[in-house]
Design brief:
Layout: E1 2-6, E2 15-18, E3 28-38, H1 40-46, E4 60-61, E5 65-72, E6 84-87, E7 90-91, H2 98-101, E8 114-116, E9 120-121, E10 128-132, E11 136-138, H3 150-167, E12 176-180, H4 184-195, E13 199-203, H5 210-218, E14 221-223, H6 227-230, E15 238-241, H7 246-254, E16 261-264, H8 278-287, E17 291-294, H9 300-312, H10 315-321, E18 322-327, E19 343-347
Length: 351
């Protein structure tokens, strides 16, 4: 089979190569790959900033934003050939830590988890892949065109779940959310905020292209200035920071309503320095009972929530998030951003 592979830690090693067809074991599905989403994590691995091949192997099959169709399924598994599925990315550590032992492997305490296409397990960027029945999630057949958005949607499903849990510490009736960043994470976060009946504001640099229209058609307000300008006159109860830009992270901390919640989903680049008034920020956080927390990855519960959210969403709006598709043999093009990109997808289907 053909697969998108990389040698972790080695520059310029991204290649579409032949790899052995997977052989499913007991309790595993054999899946025909349909589509693969490309995100910042994939680009970091390609840039040799991260990533680990499976033990004893040199190359890693890339990709964690999956979509496939079941080709073979064990009897009694609840799956049949033809089912539309995605694979859960993370596996709990073998020890396991107390969080992993309870199914909360997105909150692993010791870092010994593994992840498809990222850390020590081959990813889903291939014509065929396999996945354990317990870590496969069935999708509504009508989601074939947009099901590749499932994994990023799980990140937001978890973020919103934790936001609501934190808010429930006291009286909590949020009215307004600001999302910083109008990439796939930010837009899916905005979609879920709108589904919760909130007034949605999105801040991004783009003044042209699909992003402003996508926010407008969602019923949100699109901003291109600073965080301060976006919240002028009415600070949000919730901010979801989806860029990782250091200045925006600290601006978010300073611009919520009292008892505000800031969820950080963007991963910042290390080594960049800036001056901040740490005393003022700390004072506001303490005196206003604010909460700032980070969120990454998702567990099985979040996949189920995300599947339901996608099934209930406007399909035509979701389809517009996918702004470019490239075939597997030209997958390297997906790693070169183009104007107007929101989500770039690699089509995996065999000719």
């Amino acid at each position: 089979m053909r697969a998108l592979t990389v040698t972790p830690g080695e520059q310029d090693s991204l290649l579409v190569t032949d790899m052995p067809d997977p052989v499913p074991g007991a309790g595993e599905l054999l899946v025909e790959g349909l589509a693969l989403g490309i995100c910042g994590t994939d680009r970091e691995i390609v840039a040799s900033a991260y990533g680990f091949a499976p033990p004893g192997e040199k190359r890693l099959i890339l990709g964690h934003e999956s979509l496939g169709r079941v080709r073979q399924a064990p009897a009694g598994s609840g799956f049949v050939p033809g089912d539309l599925v995605v694979g859960v990315v993370r596996r709990p550590d073998p020890v396991p830590c107390q969080a992993c032992a309870r199914g909360e492997f997105d909150m692993c305490r010791n870092g010994r988890y593994t992840e498809h296409g990222i850390k020590e397990i081959h990813g889903f960027g291939s014509e065929l892949w396999k996945v354990e029945v317990d870590y496969a999630v069935k999708l509504d057949p009508g989601l074939e065109a947009v099901g590749v958005l499932m994994e990023p949607a799980t990140v937001l499903a978890k973020a919103w779940e934790h936001i609501m849990r934190i808010g429930a510490r006291a009286w909590f009736e949020p009215r307004r959310v600001l999302i910083t960043g109008a990439g796939p994470i930010g837009l899916l976060g905005a979609m879920m905020g709108k589904a919760r009946g909130l007034e949605v504001h999105v801040l991004d640099l783009a003044t042209e292209g699909p992003k402003p229209r996508l926010v407008h058609d969602l019923g949100g307000v699109y901003h291109t200035g600073s965080v301060g300008e976006a919240v002028e006159g009415c600070r949000p109860d919730i901010i979801i920071e989806a860029t990782g830009v250091g200045r925006l992270v600290f601006d978010a901390m300073e611009n919520t309503a009292a008892a505000g919640i800031v969820c950080l989903t963007g991963v910042s680049t290390a080594g960049r320095h800036m001056e901040v008034d740490a005393g003022s920020i700390n004072r506001d956080i303490v005196l206003e009972n604010d909460v700032i927390f980070g969120s990454v990855n998702a567990n099985l519960r979040h996949y189920e929530i995300a599947a339901a959210a996608l099934a209930e969403a406007d399909r035509s709006w979701l389809e517009r998030l996918i702004t470019r598709r490239v075939p597997l043999e030209r997958a390297l093009e997906a790693f070169h951003p183009e104007p107007g990109d929101v989500k770039v997808v690699v089509d995996l289907g065999r000719e």
